[in-house]
Give the backbone structure.
Amino acid sequence: MKRFLFIIFSCLSTFSFSHAQSVGLKTNILYLSSSTPNLGMEFSLTPKSTLSLVGGYNALNYPSQIRHGVRINSKLHHWLVMPEYKYWFCRSFERHYLGVHAVYSKFNMGGISFIDKLSDDRYEGDFYGGGISWGYQWAFGDRWGLEFSLGLGYLHFNYKKYQCGACGDYKGKYKRNYVGPTKAAISLIYYVK
């Protein structure tokens, strides 16, 4: 997967240097507020369409806790990649757009006391899926912009569930399907010119 991501970013970077007037680098502030560093690159394909690739990685370990006599190693480890094609109603990087996105993520998280589902169990697995999105973007200044977007779609989860704690007991393997929100972003954008 690392090789795949390297090839994608290399191709996008090569393209962006030849079309620098229509490239944006972005970070999703909502995703960042969940302690997940993320970076995206978006470039024009035509005067009314763009292609975006966003990736995020979190290796956060919370301080260990003792609950019910058991040491809990709280963590929120995951990485995510989300490509998206956008059709703009005005022109690329301006105002409203409709998009189609895909998503893939791997995760290992649990022992998070302030999230009810993650409090007593640890989940390890992946998910993939996609959906449609709507967004709005505007520039403030020559090189800066802000984008709001929401997406709805489908996700398929494959994961193993363990009891929280060091060497927690295996509880089973699960598959789940989800239909609902798949994307929420408030992104700060730097336009490369």
Summary: The chain has one domain: 2-192. The two ends are 31 Å apart (CA to CA). Confidence is low (pLDDT under 50) at residues 11-21.
